[in-house]
Amino acid sequence: MAEKLTLALDAMGGDHAPDMVVEGVAMSRERFPDVRYLLFGDRALLEPLLGQHPELEGMCEIRHTEERISGEMKPSQALRQGKQSSMRLAINAVHEGEADAVVSAGNTGALMAMSKFVLQMMSAIDRPAIVAYFPNREGETVMLDLGANVECDANNLIQFSIMGAIFARTVLGLQDPIVGLLNIGEEELKGNQNVKAAHTVLSQGILPFRYHGFVEGDGIHSGAVDVVVTDGWTGNVALKTMEGTANLFGTFVSRSFRSSLMARIGYLFASHAFGKMKIRLDPRHYNGAVLVGLRGISVKSHGGTDALGFSTAIAVAIDMVNNRFIENIREQMGKLDPEQIETLLAGVE
Amino acid sequence: MAEKLTLALDAMGGDHAPDMVVEGVAMSRERFPDVRYLLFGDRALLEPLLGQHPELEGMCEIRHTEERISGEMKPSQALRQGKQSSMRLAINAVHEGEADAVVSAGNTGALMAMSKFVLQMMSAIDRPAIVAYFPNREGETVMLDLGANVECDANNLIQFSIMGAIFARTVLGLQDPIVGLLNIGEEELKGNQNVKAAHTVLSQGILPFRYHGFVEGDGIHSGAVDVVVTDGWTGNVALKTMEGTANLFGTFVSRSFRSSLMARIGYLFASHAFGKMKIRLDPRHYNGAVLVGLRGISVKSHGGTDALGFSTAIAVAIDMVNNRFIENIREQMGKLDPEQIETLLAGVE
User: CA of B266: which chain A residue's CA is closest?
Assistant: First the structure.
C-alpha cells in the first residue's frame, strides 16, 4: 500500500468524462481529505479542470496519455490495442503498487478483461464475480454475480457467498450479514443441481456468515437477506429486470402526476415527500460495481453517471481499501478446508 | 368440443374458494353469456352460493366431490392421492371431452403435474411451459417459460417462441406479435450455448412470427417485444424479481404519500390519477397462467385472487378455446421442418 491511500482514476472513461471525474474527486474531498488521486488521461483537458479546484492542489497528479478505450471496443481488442489507454495505465498503477485501487466509468467489458489480465485472480478463488448493491425495503442488498460468468458451479457459488458477505461488511458496514442463495422456490427440492449442492455446503454452518437459505426473486428486495448469491446469467437478468420494472413504475408515477390539473396540484403538495423517495432510490447513491476475486480492487462506475455518482464509486473503492477487503478474503478462504467442501459436494452430486 | 363452450372449474381451489369462484362466474356472465360451467366441489357449499345468483340458473352444473387438493400437497402426492379431488375431476372433464378447458386457483404444482398427466403433451412439443402476461410501458408482455422447466435446450426455446406468439394472438389479440429471446446482452457473442443456438434458428425467418432478436431484462417492460422467451429458471426469477421490485416501489409510493400532512393533502388531489394507475397495474387484470404444450387447456389462477381476478382467468380460458389455441399450435408445428431445424442447430453447436 502506498503511504497515503491512493486511487488510480481512469479520467477519460464515462459519458461525461473527464469533467465529472474531476468534479467527483472534488465532491469526495470533504469526506476523504487524506486520499491521493492519480488521474490518467489527457493533460490538456485535465489541467484546466483541476485549475478550477485550487482546493485539490497537492491531492491530484495527472498521468498523461492521449489514448482511451471507446465504449464500442470489444474486450479482446482493448487488451491488444489499449496498452497505453487511460484505463489500462490506471489498472497498471494498482498492479505496480502505486495505487490501492482503480475506478473507471469506461467500457465495462474492457475494464473487466484488463483488470483480470493485469491484476490476476487470487489463488484461492476460481472465478471472479461482479458485485454491486441497491436499495431494499429497509436498507441495502448486495448481489453477485451480476454477469462475470454465464455459468457457475457449486464451488463458484460458495466462493461468491464468502466474497459477498465480506463486501457487505467492508462496504456497507454490516457486522453480521445474512446470505441467501437465489432459487426458484424456497423448498430444498427445487432448483438446479449446482444451487442444491451449494445449499448443502452453505447449510453446514462452516462459512463465516449467517446463511438464510434459499430466496426467490421477490426476496431480493424484501430485506430478509443482506447478500443474494447467484450465477452471472441469472444475476444479470435479475438486475436488469429490476431496472426495467423500476423505470416502468417511475414512468407510471410521473404520468399519473401529469395526467390532470388536480394531479398536478397534488404533486405540488406531495413533491417534498416524493423528493425524499427519489433521493432514497437515486441510483447515484448505489454506483460502484466491483469485480471481486482479483488481487487488486477494480471499481466500475456507471458510464452515464455524474460527479455525485462517481464520488460514490470512489467511496466504494476507499471503503474496500480501508477495511482490507482483499486481506479479509484471503484470511477467510485460508480458514476453509477445501477437502471438507469437496467431500460435501461429492455427497450431493 | 361440447355444443356450448364449457369450462370445468375447480370450485374448491384458492384461498377464497368456493365463494370467489361462484362470484367470478357471475362477473363473467355479461361478457360471456353463452358459456356453461361445470363446478367441481362440495355441493353443500356450492348450492347456497349459486342460490344467491338466480341469473346463473341453467349455466352452472355442480359435480359433487368432497375431496380437495390442499396447498401443501406435493405434486407426486396429489397425483397418487387426489384422484377424486375437485381439481383432478375438473381436469378429467377436459380429457373426456365434457369441457373445453379447466380453470383452477388451487395448488400450482399439483395442477401442473395432474394436467400434464391427464391431458398429456402434444406430440409436436417436447416440454410444456408456463406462460403468462403482464403490463409493459404501452400494452402487455407475454412471457414463457415461467417455471415449468429448470433447464431448456435450444429446441425447447424455439417451441416456446411459437407457443408464446400464438398465445399473444389468441389471448391478447395481437395480429403480428414480435418475439424476443432473453439474454444478458444484445450482441450475438453473449449468452449461453442454448440461447445462441435458438437465436440462429429464430433469425432465419422460417417461424410464424416477427423475431426481434435478443432482449435484456430491462427490455421485458419496454414494449419493444410482445413475447419474451426464456427457460423456466430464468423466467421464474425474472417474474418474481418484477413482483418484488413493483412491491418495493408501491411501498415507497404509499410511504411517501403518508409521510407528512402536505403529502396527505397531495394525495387527495392526485388520488384519482393514482387510482387509474392502480387499475392499469392491478394484478387481477393479468391473472391466468397457462401450462402450454398439452392437448388440453389448463389455466392457473393466482391462489389469493378474488372474483374479479378469477373472472380474468376464466376469460383467458375462453379466449384460448374460441381462438383455437391448440389447433393453431398443431397447424404451425405441422408446417415446420424438424430436419431443417436440426441441421441449423447442429451447425451452431
Answer: A266
Smallest CA–CA distance from A191 into chain B, residue: B150
Distance CA B226, CA B137 (A): 11
Contact B184 A220 (CB under 8 A): no
Question: Is A276's CB within 8 Å of B253's CB?
Answer: no
**Element (H or E) spanning B327, and its range?**
helix B325-335
How far A67 CA lies from chain B's nearest CA (Å)? 25
Nearest CA in chain B to A272: B263
Amino acid code (one letter) for A66: E
Virtual CA dihedral for A105, A106, A111, A112, nearest 10 degrees?
A: 70
For residue A21, give the H/E element and its range: helix A19-28
Name residue A83's amino acid.
K
Strand order in the sheet with B6-10: B60-64, B36-41, B6-10, B101-104, B297-300, B289-292, B129-135, B140-144, B227-229, B178-182, B210-215
CB < 8 Å to A222, chain B: 244
Judged by CB atoms closer than 8 Å, whether chains meet at A269 and B265 is answered as yes
Closest Cβ–Cβ partner in A246, A248, A260 for B137? A248
> pTM for the whole thing?
0.88
By CA distance, what is B139's nearest residue in A? Answer: A248
Is residue B266 within 8 Å of A273, Cβ to Cβ?
yes
Closest CA to A293 of A145, A83, A77: A145
Q: CA B96 to CA B80: how far, in whole Å?
A: 20
How many angstroms away from the CA of B240 is the closest CA of chain A?
4
Phi and psi at residue B15, in whole multiples of 5°? -60, -35
Chain center to CA of B260: 41
Cβ pair A88, A112 in contact under 8 A:
no
Residues in chain B closer than 8 A to A277 (CB atoms): 252-253, 255-256
- Cell 489498472 belongs to which residue? A91
Residues A232, A291: contact at Cβ < 8 Å? no
Chain A hits for B113, CB-CB cut-off 8 Å, are none
Sequential pLDDT tens for chain A (349 residues): 447 999 999 999 999 999 999 999 999 998 999 999 999 999 999 999 999 999 998 899 999 999 999 999 999 999 999 999 999 999 999 999 999 999 999 999 999 999 999 999 999 899 999 999 988 888 899 999 998 888 889 999 999 999 999 999 999 999 999 999 999 876 655 668 889 999 999 999 888 899 999 999 989 988 899 999 999 999 999 999 998 888 888 888 888 888 888 888 888 888 888 888 888 788 888 888 999 999 999 999 999 899 999 999 999 999 999 999 999 999 999 888 888 888 888 887 5
Whether residues B192 and A263 touch (CB distance < 8 A) is answered with no
Residue with cell 414480435: B178
pLDDT value of position A189: 59
Residue contact B237–A237, C-beta within 8 A: yes
Q: Which of B241, B260, B269 is nearest residue A218 as measured by Cβ atoms?
A: B241
From residue A254, alpha-carbon distances to A274, A283, B149, B257, B282 in Å are: 11, 17, 38, 14, 18
pLDDT at B252 over 90: no
- Shortest Cα–Cα distance, B280 to chain A (Å): 9
ipTM higher than threshold 0.95: no
